[in-house]
Every structure is written in C-alpha cells, then in structure tokens.
C-alpha cells in the first residue's frame, strides 16, 4: 500500500516505568471526620504506599530519516527526570511541593506527571505526549489525555477505569 497523497505517517509509542511512593488522602478543606468518612483507610495519618505503574504514550509524525516518532532512549531519560527522580521512594505529600495543597489522588498524580513531562520534553520535538496511564492496584487505573479534563460529556479526557 502506498503512502502517496497521505502526507507523513503518524504513530504512537509508549514506555512503562514503575515507582514506589507513599501518601495520605487528606483534604485540608475538610475536617478530620469528613476526611476519614470520604477516604477511609487511605486517610491513615501514617499514610500508605503503592507500587505505581505509569505508561507514557507520545504521538507524532514518523521521521523519514530515523523511522521513529521519538527515540525511546530519550523518552526514558525524560521520564526519569519527570517521574522517577521526583516521585520514586518519596512521600508525595511531604516530599513533592506540588502536593502541599493538592490531594495526592491518582488523578492528581496523573496531572502532575503530565505537567512535569511538558517541562522536560523539548519543544522542537515532533512528538507530543498523548496520554499518561497510571495503575496502582490491579483494579484502579487513571488516564489523562491532552492535559485537561472535560465534563460536558464530549469525549471526556480524564478516564477512570475501575
């Protein structure tokens, strides 16, 4: 099949990393009783830990010279800077300034990773972050796509799968 008339081909590539972190689900806007009722055992004052799995997917045009959307070795380095260094073996609430006033839910961790990746990916790259998927249990996964959420029912961009 010929690509004549189709323009440059586009593709998505993904890379997985795993990190361990602890946190406590606790909102400063709620009383201790309200937090306990809302977050249950995840509101333990001593926190609790997770082994997170994060899949970052980038998309873009396939470079005709290299045959790649992005060199996966480079993506590994960006993920090291944006995810592993700030989050691995950390207390999210105490060690990551972003979570000082933001509840460290999986949704907010996904947003943090999305925003942090934007700081490390060079602007001149053809590839852009397409999605960030997080799993911290066998049953819970969060995905943020395009860096924003929508509540109008049209192609919701923050997906929660239980």
From TrEMBL:
Molecular function GO terms recorded: 6-pyruvoyltetrahydropterin synthase activity; metal ion binding
Query: What are the required cofactors?
Result: Zn(2+)
InterPro entries the UniProt entry points to: 6-PTP_synth/QueD, 6-PTP_synth/QueD_sf, PTPS_Cys_AS, PTPS_His_AS
Q: Which GO terms describe its biological process?
A: tetrahydrobiopterin biosynthetic process
PROSITE patterns for this protein: PTPS_1 (PS00987), PTPS_2 (PS00988)
Q: What does this protein do?
A: Involved in the biosynthesis of tetrahydrobiopterin, an essential cofactor of aromatic amino acid hydroxylases. Catalyzes the transformation of 7,8-dihydroneopterin triphosphate into 6-pyruvoyl tetrahydropterin.
Pathway the protein contributes to: Cofactor biosynthesis; tetrahydrobiopterin biosynthesis; tetrahydrobiopterin from 7,8-dihydroneopterin triphosphate: step 1/3
Q: Name one Pfam family in it.
A: PTPS
Q: Which family does it belong to?
A: Belongs to the PTPS family.
Q: Which domain of life is it from?
A: Eukaryota
Question: Where, by residue number, does the polypeptide cross the bilayer?
Answer: none
Q: Which Gene3D superfamilies match?
A: 6-pyruvoyl tetrahydropterin synthase/QueD (3.30.479.10)
Which top class of enzyme applies to this chain?
lyase
Give the EC number(s) under which this enzyme is classified.
Answer: 4.2.3.12
Keywords for this protein: Lyase, Metal-binding, Tetrahydrobiopterin biosynthesis, Zinc
User: SUPFAM superfamilies in the record, alphabetically?
Assistant: Tetrahydrobiopterin biosynthesis enzymes-like
Name this protein carries in UniProt? 6-pyruvoyl tetrahydrobiopterin synthase
